[in-house]
Amino acid sequence: MIKTYLTFTFIVLFHICLPAQDFTFGSLTPADVKLKRNDLDSFSNAAVLNEYGKAFMVYNDTKGYTELIVEYHVRIKIFNRDGYGRADIVLPTHRDESGERMDVLSEIKAITLNIVDGKVVSLPLDKSQLFREEVSKYLTHTKFTFPGLQDGSIIEYSYRLTSPHIFNFRTWYLQDDIPKVNSLFEALIPGMYNYNVVLRGPFPLDIQDAKLKRGCFRIAGKDIDCSQMTYGMKNIPAFVEEDYMTASSNFKSAIYFELSDIYRLNGSNIKITKEWRDVDRELVTHPDFGGQMKRDNVFKSILPTILAGAPDELAKAKAMYRYIQQHIKWNRYLGKYSENNIKQALEHRSGNIGDINLALIAGLRAAGLDAEAVMLSTRDNGVVNDLHPVLSDFNYVVAKVNIGDDYHLLDASDPFLPFGLLPLRCINGKARVINLKEPSYWIEPKSSQKSTILYALTAELHPDGSLKGQLTTTSNGYTALNKRHELANYNTTEEYIEHIDETHTAFGISGGEIHGITEAEDPLVERYDIDMKLYDGLDAPEIFFNPFFINRVGKNPFNLDERTYPVDMGTAREERVVITVKLPAGYTLKSKPDDYNLALENKGGRYLTQTQLNGDTFTFSQLLALNQATYVPESYFALKEFFSRIIQQEKIDVVLHKAAGE
What we know:
By secondary structure, the chain is mainly beta. The chain has three domains: 3-271, Immunoglobulin-like; 276-443, C8orf32 fold (Roll), CATH 3.10.620; 451-658, Jelly Rolls. It is built from eleven helices and 36 strands. Helix 6 packs antiparallel against helix 8 and helix 7 packs across helix 8. It is globular. Keywords: Signal. Residues 1-20 form the signal peptide. It holds the Pfam family Transglut_core. It comes from Parapedobacter defluvii. This is Transglutaminase-like domain-containing protein.
């Protein structure tokens, strides 16, 4: 991730004659109309023609606090039907934990502009088509869709947001998943507020301007001067997401603000950037965080039942973990705080992430174990600031139980998660451990298990040309977890096996059984009776057989010309295939794929294949191992070439030849 720290003062840093101003709503330019898809790149289905944002602050005398006003205006051209999704707009508004301070949207305007017979036809949005969705008690989505879309439509919308949340001012994303012709942001910051400003991403600014604006903020009858900052980029390429990455916001070019100090009118200074000791005290005393961790009395009456037969600390921890897994169902809401309280969550058997894992911590403490809370940010929420505390960066909490010289990170929100394995969404850089008595500290959660799968096929080739046998698949780690989730979508195991039979075209499944569905800490073992037709009868002098038919790599997951962000899989992976086939008498191995041994540098991965015929027994083995959870961008082309060679290798058939007279 590339970061550039920007500074501003009341003197002009450098001034370019590029005025920061909005463009006229609904008034197209010839360039807007003429722009074609290939003018930017050949892959984008839409593009931002122009984007302008302005953020400034006002003091609300009635409410008694400063508010941030954000004005946003964007014009987008949709090239084809695949770009119609850009016309589905979602505007989020947030409410603070007290429920009293909230964002307010106003002045929403939206219009579709089509060129019909050389004339501009405009279709304004009917305000009755604005919909509000309460995502949680902290988040509301305002949604609308543009009318009258067609290929070449230009859509345009603007709004005004009034927000009490001034800490991060307004993050401005210069880069998006479609290209932008122009993006310009103007920030007016009163002199009494000091912000740290960071440019994140791979591209430099085309426009950076700072100047003094007199009397732009008024408080207590006094006018305060502002810094007027302008940031812009032109011809910004689309940010292309690819497999194996964390939140795209970690890597897109953007301007970030973080409030550092407030200078009062009396000359005193309030330092907003807290120390961790201040945050520790706040969290430990917070009724919905530390207050819930301390509620071990909730488990007093049920503790003997939960811990019955648990001989040691590890067994007690596992018993309490299983109890919470079974007794509080996740309501699909995230959160580092308890939403209701852990007692109600246990009684109603439902709660958010905070309810579940703070209850787990309280239960572990009730069992006499050393348990702490771990705050983190999920993979789709972005990485946390590890220079100083920013509580809003964290959106999740898990438990940490210390046993002897070891510790285990636990999330009881998923009944299929084995003890000690966090959901993949939680593997996202640093996390902060909160102890009720000791200072907090950083850890970096890792996957406690490698994600593995072993395919073992034992079969016989029959004279009628059919290959029949048993395929046993053994899964561990996230592979097993994902399969258990998939199995939960079916009423019976038989329904799931029918689904597997329908989706596997290389072979048919005549029956099967699955073990370890409910035992999360055991491997998931699937056994299927399979058959596939290799040839018609014994008259075929040669049999062509591709041994890579089990989970073949059909597509390279890495296709970019350049990737500026890491390949982050969250965990190491290993896949093995072992095939043993008994052949009819008289067959020899005419040709086969070369035995292959392909390695990534620094022991980052390996791909091995081996094929042989011993008597009438054909054997094939394959190993695909990716030994690192994360690969730096500099390793991207090696990974791309690695998978390219695998795909080529897996195209090669085995040819078995029938000896004359047999």
